[in-house]
């Protein structure tokens, strides 16, 4: 099977779960007031469990002593994304530029790369632990800075108190704890069932979040908001094509190790983070257009991610 189909399968699988969530919401099986509860369960319980289990099982400091470079590469990645966002955001119209920039800057950094890496390399690959270490500061950045995109927008909150419960979030805490256990060889004293509990609970994170995403999209589109066809087309062009191609060029110039290049190209190619519509509404922005950005980017990624990865594989062949 060629590399395009190898990547195509997990992407379609991920989106298929989202479609199932859309259908479940449409049938009234899941109600709108339940989605918030399920989101907390997925983000605060299941996702940290998934991170903990993968680091405990697959993070081997002795085999990869350069692990400490991963957060530094994330800082570099984020700086480049900030520059690309600042340059390309002006193709959008002024009235929705904040939503456009926010959706460009914050990528779906965990779930899309997780399902793609698992689909290509299997569930026991060491790339998963490296992915979680790479992205560990991303949720804190999101919760600590999203409001800055709306600081000049009418209706935005004028005063923002730092929500330390979200900045020092469960994913950050559990990543640090799991890494410490592995670095100081404490993990060997833990009974096998202890990690198994986290592994089983964490397994529901990905399908649960995609079901929630599909259900949330149905709730929003059921309200029949205005369609922003032109803005959505510009967004997909920038997010799904310009960003990954720009990073591919940077990676070809820098020639980092394969694991770094793999994680960075996936981060550049994935759609926006799914929580953007919620914070957009909180800041008085246009929730409808951010939902349309996410949905269009998700759909187009069925083709764009496998295509980008095919080109990437030419310059960075799988080991």
Describe this structure in words.
- 71% of the residues lie in helices and 0% in strands.
- The protein is mainly α and 319 residues long.
- The chain has a single domain (3-315), classed as Na+/H+ antiporter like fold (Up-down Bundle), CATH 1.20.1530.
- The two termini are 16 Å apart.
- The relative contact order is 0.19.
- The mean pLDDT is 86.
Total strand segments: 0
Query: What's the CATH architecture name?
Result: Up-down Bundle
SS element count, helices:
15
End-to-end Cα distance, whole Å, is 16 Å
What spatial form do the alpha-carbon principal axes imply?
globular
Largest sheet: none
How many structural domains can be distinguished in the coordinates?
1
Please identify the structural class as seen in this structure.
Answer: mainly alpha
Radius of gyration: 19 Å
CATH topology: Na+/H+ antiporter like fold
- Beta-strand percent range: under 5%
Summarize model confidence as the mean pLDDT: 86
The run of helices and strands is: HHHHHHHHHHHHHHH
- Ranges with pLDDT <50 over ≥5 residues? none
Q: Provide the helix percentage.
A: over 70%
Regarding CATH, which class? Mainly Alpha
């Amino acid at each position: 099977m060629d590399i395009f189909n190898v990547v195509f399968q997990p992407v379609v699988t991920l989106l298929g779960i989202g479609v199932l969530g859309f259908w479940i919401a449409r049938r009234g099986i899941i109600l709108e007031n339940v989605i918030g509860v399920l989101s907390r369960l997925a983000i605060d319980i299941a996702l940290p469990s998934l991170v903990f289990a993968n680091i405990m099982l697959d993070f081997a400091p002795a085999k990869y002593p350069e692990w400490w470079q991963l957060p530094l590469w994330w800082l570099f990645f984020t700086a480049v994304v900030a520059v690309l966002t600042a340059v390309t955001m002006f193709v959008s119209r002024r009235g929705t530029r904040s939503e456009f920039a926010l959706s460009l800057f914050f990528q779906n950094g965990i779930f899309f790369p997780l399902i793609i890496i698992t689909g290509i390399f299997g569930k026991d690959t060491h790339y998963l632990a490296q992915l979680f270490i790479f992205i560990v500061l991303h949720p804190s950045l999101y919760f600590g800075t999203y409001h800055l995109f709306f600081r000049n927008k009418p209706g935005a909150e004028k005063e923002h108190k730092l929500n330390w419960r979200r900045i020092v979030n469960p994913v950050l805490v559990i990543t640090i704890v799991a890494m410490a256990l592995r670095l100081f060889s404490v993990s060997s004293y833990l009974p096998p069932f202890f990690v198994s509990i986290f592994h089983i609970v964490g397994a529901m994170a990905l399908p649960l979040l995609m079901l929630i995403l599909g259900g949330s999209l149905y709730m929003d589109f059921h309200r029949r908001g205005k369609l922003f066809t032109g803005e959505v087309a510009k967004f997909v062009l920038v997010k799904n094509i310009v960003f990954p191609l720009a990073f591919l060029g940077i990676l070809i110039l820098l020639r980092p190790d394969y694991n770094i290049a793999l994680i960075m190209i996936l981060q550049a190619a994935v759609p926006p983070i799914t929580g953007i519509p919620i914070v957009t509404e909180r800041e008085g922005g246009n929730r409808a257009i951010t939902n349309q950005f996410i949905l269009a980017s998700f759909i187009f990624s069925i083709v764009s991610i496998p295509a980008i990865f095919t080109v990437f594989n030419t310059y960075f062949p799988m080991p």
